[in-house]
Write a structure and sequence with these properties.
Blueprint lengths: L1 E6 L4 E10 L6 E11 L1 H5 L6 H22 L11 E7 L3 H18 L3 E5 H7 L12 E6 L4 E8 L2 E7 L5 H11 L7 H14 L31 H14 L4 H29 L6 E5 L6 H12 L5 E3 L11 H13 L25
Parallel strand pairs: 1-4, 4-5, 6-9, 9-10
Antiparallel strand pairs: 1-2, 2-3, 6-7, 7-8
Helix pairs in contact: 2-3, 4-10, 5-7, 5-8, 6-8, 7-8, 8-9
Zinc ion binds next to helix 4.
């Protein structure tokens, strides 16, 4: 199947053409065209993503990216050889989502091709199908991004259950907010991680991670011992804020130590909740998927790899680095999954609506 995929759920405009065939557990995927324009520099000056501004930018960027992507794929604008168009329907910022949906529907009309709506979180989940590894089900997915922190049981390609989720901030959001406290620009995740690495390599190299830092650096691990699989990151963020205020003027080394203490706390909760979910499931889980922007985090991948190795029948699947943050390739892959488990969505016109709060466990992404 040749799919033209569009992603506009937040602050990245992305378009891709993929050719995907074969079984869902191990499809063969060729990227024929792929473009992405980040609005980060634009939103940065306002300190956050403004939905209406994002929408306007998507509307401006989409025709340009479409033309470039089709060119890369060797296709023409008038009548490209694709099977259908896929577009993110949610979750995300509704005005931003609408920009993608309206554009996709226009293309569908002009080209007389079906258009289907795709769940962004399924996109993150199935980003791990790229790269050739097999994904055997049932799987447990730890989805960690700027908007989401959830543990999902994937029983089948059309059967998802959220086992736990954040009660307040998402983990990526906490990284971004702590970064701002330390005077770093959005997106803060990678920058916090670099600072934390410096702290680790500098003084405390020999200490295991999660070890208490000197100078009373230790932040709470919210809900670590709660007997459910939910998360909470707002208390941790506030604890960092108080600490930063208490410390006053921060030396470079202190900033690094704060970043490290925060990262240790944030990641330990993710890993331990994942351990709990795996323990609860007995031996039934075959694959552990970790995806979303925060899955690029080095400490997380190290700790989660150790965790996965302690379960003999478990295979860990992480997305390729370039597919950790938002992109259109993952939307194309999730669209293939949707169209394979439910081929009827390619017949007749779908009524695609932007659904800002779409949940991965709901029945339909349309
Ligand atoms: O999946 P994504 O691109 O967008 C959403 O769907 O939200 O995730 C973006 C988030 C941002 O919060 C960013 O700070 C975080 O992923 N992130 C990281 C790292 N790289 C990106 N967080 C921690 N460590 C990283 N290396
Ligand atoms: Zn995302």
């Amino acid at each position: 199947m040749k799919i033209l995929a569009i992603e506009t759920s937040c602050d990245e405009t992305a378009v891709a053409v993929i050719d995907i065939t074969g079984p869902l557990a191990k499809p063969e995927i060729k990227i024929l065209g792929n473009t992405l324009l980040s609005q980060v520099p634009l939103h940065e000056q306002y300190g956050g993503v403004f939905p209406m501004l994002a929408k306007r930018e998507h509307e401006k960027n989409l025709p340009v990216l479409l033309e470039q992507t089709l060119k890369q794929a060797g296709e023409n604008m008038k009548n490209p050889d694709i099977d259908f168009v896929a577009v993110t329907a949610g979750p995300g910022l509704e005005p931003a989502l609408w920009a993608g949906i309206v554009f996709a529907e226009e293309l569908g009309k002009n080209w007389r091709k079906p258009v289907i709506g795709v769940d962004h979180m399924k996109g993150h989940t199935w980003s791990v199908l790229f790269g050739g590894g097999k994904v055997e089900l049932p799987a447990l997915a730890l989805l960690v991004s700027g908007g989401h922190t959830e543990l999902v049981l994937v029983r089948d390609f059309d059967d998802y259950e959220i086992l736990g989720r954040t009660k307040d901030d998402a983990v990526g959001e906490a990284f971004d907010k702590v970064a701002r406290m330390l005077g770093l620009h959005y997106p803060g995740g990678p920058k916090i991680s670099l600072l934390a690495e410096k702290s680790r390599s500098r003084t405390y190299e020999k200490l295991p991670t999660y070890e208490k830092l000197p100078r009373s650096f230790s932040f709470p691990r919210p809900m670590l011992h709660s007997d459910n699989l939910n998360f909470s990151y707002s208390g941790l963020k506030t604890a960092v804020l108080y600490k930063v205020r208490e410390l006053g003027e921060l030396s470079e080394e202190t900033r690094e130590d704060v970043a490290r203490a925060f990262e240790d706390a944030a990641i330990e909760v993710l890993v331990e909740k994942t351990r709990k979910a795996l323990d609860n499931a007995g031996d039934s889980i075959k694959t552990l998927i970790v995806a979303g922007g925060v899955s690029a985090n080095k400490l997380l991948t190290e700790k989660i790899s150790e965790l996965a190795a302690s379960f003999p029948n478990l295979t860990l699947r992480l997305p390729e680095r370039s597919l950790t943050t938002d992109n259109a390739i993952m939307i194309g892959i999730a669209a293939y999954v949707e169209a394979t488990v439910n081929p009827s969505i390619l017949k007749g016109k779908q009524d695609i609506k932007a659904r800002g709060n779409l949940s991965i466990s709901s029945q339909s992404s349309q």
